[in-house]
């Protein structure tokens, strides 16, 4: 299986954003890490689509 997702997008992907019947994935956020290494969820912007 290939998704072409960036690592941060895949890590932030909740199960409800997967539609296995249609074979679709909706990416709405990404994981980023602050200077201390703590993860934070970053919403995707309209420009990033």
Describe what is shown at a glance.
The protein is mainly beta and 49 residues long. The protein is built from one helix and four strands; from the N terminus they run H-E-E-E-E.
Can you tell me about this structure?
With 49 residues, this protein is mostly beta strands. The protein has one domain (7-48). Helices cover 10% and strands 29% of the residues. The protein contains one helix and four strands; from the N terminus they run H-E-E-E-E. A two-stranded antiparallel sheet has the order 1-2. The chain has a two-stranded antiparallel ribbon with strand order 3-4. The longest helix is centred in the first third of the chain and has 5 residues, at 7-11. The relative contact order is 0.23. The model has no long low-confidence stretch (mean pLDDT 90).
* Subunit organisation of the chains: single chain
* Biggest β-sheet: strands ordered side by side in the sheet: 1-2
Care to count the β-strands?
Answer: 4
Encode the helix/strand succession as letters. Answer: HEEEE
Ends distance: 22 Å
Number of domains: 1
Major sheet attributes:
2 strands, antiparallel
Radius of gyration: 12 Å
Number of helices: 1
Nearest-integer average pLDDT: 90
Query: What is the percentage of strand-forming residues?
Result: 25-35%
Can you tell me the residue ranges where pLDDT is under 50 for at least 5 consecutive residues? none
Please state the overall shape, judged from the principal axes of the Cα atoms.
elongated
Fraction of residues in helix: 10-25%
Kindly name the structural category.
mainly beta
């Amino acid at each position: 299986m290939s998704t072409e997702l960036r690592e941060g997008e895949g890590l932030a992907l909740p199960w409800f954003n997967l539609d296995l019947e249609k074979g679709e994935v909706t990416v709405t956020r990404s994981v980023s890490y602050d200077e201390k290494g703590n993860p934070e969820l970053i919403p995707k912007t309209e420009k990033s689509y």
